[in-house]
Every structure is written in C-alpha cells, then in structure tokens.
C-alpha cells in the first residue's frame, strides 16, 4: 500500500469490519450489503476521487486501487458496488450535468451512491455501443432503453446511462436520478458470484431535461473511453487482485494449521502443497505490481497508458481464476464444503472475466493497440 491509503485507514477500517462481518450472509442470501455501503456513505469514501473543491477527498488512481482491493478481500459484492460508484462518478466529475449543480458535493457528502447503466440487451457486452436512441422534444430528452447488468439496481441514487443521440450515431451520457418516473428494476439478481451487488436489468422510459446530459451533445463515447473505461478497468483489476490475495492468505493459513494426525505433520509439509502456495503467492505479487503500474499510468499518462488500461483487467481476471482455483485444490474438501470462504473468492473471481469489456475482448483490443490498429 502507498502513503495515501495509510491516511485513509481510519475511514476505511469500519467499512472493512462491516464488510467482513456480513460477507458470508450477503453471499448466502444474495442480498445487497446494506451495512458496509451505509458505512461507505458515512466515511466520506464515496467522494474519494471527487475534487476537494466539492468537498471530496481528491484522491487518485493509487488510492482507488488500494481501497477497492482491500474491500474485495473482505466482500467482493461491496467492492464491485464501490467500483461502479467511482466509475460513474468520474464522468460526472469530468462533465457535470448543468441540471444538477450540487451533485458532486452530494456525492462527496455520501448522499449519492452512483452506478453505470451502459450495457444493453441489444448490444450485450459491447457496452460502448447502445442501440437505444433518445428522442428530442424541445428542451426534453425521452430515453427508452433496456439496460443490462446495472450494479446497485434499485439501490443507487443516480444512474449514468448511455443512449444514441436523437439524430446520428453519436452517444450521449445522461444522469438519471433514481426518483425519476419511468425507472423499472426487472427482478432480483441471482448470480454464481458477486451475489450481493444487485446487478439486475433496468428498463428506462424517462423524460429528462437536455441539461441532464454530461458534456456536449454526442460526447458520450469520449467520456466512456476517457473517464469511465480507465477507472473501471483499474478497479476491476483491483477486485481480482483483492480476491486472489485473500484466497492465497486463506489457503496458506489452512495448509499451515490443518494436520495429518497419523503423520504428525501439517498439510504444508507436503512439497506439492508448498509449491501450489508458492505459485499463488508469486502470482498475486505480480498482480499487485501490475496494478501499481496501471495506477501510475493513469496518474501520469504516457504513450503506453492505453496498453495498461486494456491489459490490467484481462491479466488480473485470468490470474484470479488461476489463483482461486489453486486455493480450492490446496484446501480440498474444507474449501468445497464452504468452511473457509474460499469458495466465495472462487465464485466471485469468475465474474470479472465475463464482465464487459470481457477479458477476451480486451486481449483483442490490446493486440490492436500494440500493432497500431484502431480499437473500433
């Protein structure tokens, strides 16, 4: 961890305690992690990346990655909710909607939990390509869209949603308060992992003032690429890193404590077990190093910043699959029977790989960027 996260420790500690206390229940009941999210509101951490002039903490990508990783080690669902909040906050900070002049201050004060509503049923994991189209009626925008995988659906206070402009194929981002008539959450979220993040479909049939738009008309795609994607990918890699680190710690503790009574030795006395633990630990060390490099690339952008953005999520997602799988193998029946919590890390880690932009799509984008081809 860096010096910034040390300063945040007093704010983060009570959140981590509640996330740890309720993680198994949140997972088992597939319920929203109300307690740690309430603590996030009270802590000021919802304003982590909000500029100080609006009452935020004014922190950067290093602190963000560390906070998300620490949350994921306790509760993957809470970490994903927080990741989506910050990913929605960044375009709001870049191009705040004129209709909501006090929005960033409310985010910083913990009054607003934000989320993204980008993916659509019609374009699936291609979140950057909405098929819905807004209709313009004077100073009003009518947005009709079937949004998929909306984290914190029914719990967020504001949604940052995408739609095609009324004319042409450009994209707009709009800020939609949760109190706006015409927002319908479709069913409960029941997933293999991240079972508490309320990632449900949301149907939009809303009327908004044109001033609810973020930035200029048609500027949504640039905001997604410049203000959403880098922070989302960094945060997603941080979730994978936190899960993998926690699984490694849990597997190491179990292997050290569990014994073969007839041999009078611990599980860790087996060379094969030690080798598995070593590979896991080394892989997590590499994940953390790449996470720091990506955070630095966002803090001080250079020519290779896009490569870091594209590669960080894909590499971390794949590494988390390997590490959590190894943790299950090391701990055997104790992990499979859910006695250690490693099964939760294992299941939660599967989400990142298929979450848009998927790891496979990112490898393709990385290859395009590496060879000088346009991404789209």
From TrEMBL:
Claim: Flavoprotein is one of the keywords in the record: yes
Acyl-CoA dehydrogenase/oxidase N-terminal domain span: 20-96
Gene3D superfamilies: Acyl-CoA dehydrogenase/oxidase, N-terminal domain (1.10.540.10), Butyryl-CoA Dehydrogenase, subunit A, domain 2 (2.40.110.10), Butyryl-CoA Dehydrogenase, subunit A, domain 3 (1.20.140.10)
Top-level taxon: Bacteria
Record domain Acyl-CoA oxidase/dehydrogenase middle: where: 116-205
Pfam families on file: Acyl-CoA_dh_1 (PF00441), Acyl-CoA_dh_M (PF02770), Acyl-CoA_dh_N (PF02771)
Keywords on record: FAD, Flavoprotein, Oxidoreductase
Gene Ontology MF term list: flavin adenine dinucleotide binding; oxidoreductase activity, acting on the CH-CH group of donors
CC cofactor: FAD
Residues in Acyl-CoA dehydrogenase/oxidase C-terminal domain copies: 218-355
InterPro entries, per the entry: Acyl-CoA_Oxase/DH_mid-dom, Acyl-CoA_Oxase/DH_mid-dom_sf, AcylCo_DH-like_C, AcylCo_DH/oxidase_C, AcylCoA_DH/ox_N, AcylCoA_DH/ox_N_sf, AcylCoA_DH/oxidase_NM_dom_sf, Mito_Isobutyryl-CoADH
Stated family: Belongs to the acyl-CoA dehydrogenase family.
Protein name: Acyl-CoA dehydrogenase
Species, as recorded: Saccharomonospora marina XMU15
């Amino acid at each position: 961890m860096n010096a910034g996260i040390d300063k945040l420790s007093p704010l983060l500690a009570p959140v981590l305690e509640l996330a740890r206390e309720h993680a198994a229940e949140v997972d088992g009941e597939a319920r929203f992690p109300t307690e740690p999210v309430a603590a996030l509101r009270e802590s000021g951490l919802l304003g982590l990346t909000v500029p100080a002039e609006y009452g935020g903490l004014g922190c950067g990508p290093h602190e963000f990655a560390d906070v998300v990783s620490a949350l994921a080690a306790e509760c993957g669902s809470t970490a994903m909710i927080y990741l989506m909040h910050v990913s929605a906050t960044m375009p709001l900070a870049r191009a705040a909607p004129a209709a909501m002049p006090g929005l960033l201050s409310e985010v910083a004060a913990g009054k607003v939990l934000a989320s993204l509503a980008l993916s659509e049923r019609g374009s699936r994991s291609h979140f950057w390509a909405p098929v819905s189209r807004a209709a313009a009626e004077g100073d009003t925008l009518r947005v009709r869209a079937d949004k998929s995988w909306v984290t914190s659906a029914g719990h967020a206070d504001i949604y940052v949603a995408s739609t095609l402009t009324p004319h042409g194929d450009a994209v707009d981002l709009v800020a939609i308060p949760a109190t706006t008539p015409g927002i319908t959450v479709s069913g409960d979220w029941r997933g293999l992992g991240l079972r508490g993040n309320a990632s449900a479909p949301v149907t939009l049939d809303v009327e908004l003032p044109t001033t609810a738009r973020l930035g200029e008309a048609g500027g949504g795609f640039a905001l997604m690429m410049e203000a959403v994607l880098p922070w989302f990918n960094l945060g997603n890699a941080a979730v994978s890193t936190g899960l993998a680190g926690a699984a490694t710690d849990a597997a190491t503790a179990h292997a050290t404590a569990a014994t073969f009574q007839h041999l009078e030795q611990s599980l860790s006395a087996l060379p094969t077990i030690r080798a598995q633990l070593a590979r896991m630990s080394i892989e997590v060390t590499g994940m953390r190093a790449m996470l720091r490099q990506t955070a630095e690339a966002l803090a001080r952008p250079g020519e290779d910043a896009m490569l870091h953005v594209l590669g960080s999520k894909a590499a971390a997602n794949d590494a988390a699959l390997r590490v959590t799988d190894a943790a299950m193998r090391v701990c055997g029946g104790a992990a499979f029977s859910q006695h250690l919590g490693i099964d939760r890390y294992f299941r939660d880690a599967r989400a990142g790989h298929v979450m848009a932009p998927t790891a496979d799509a990112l490898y393709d984008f990385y290859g395009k960027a590496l060879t000088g081809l346009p991404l789209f």
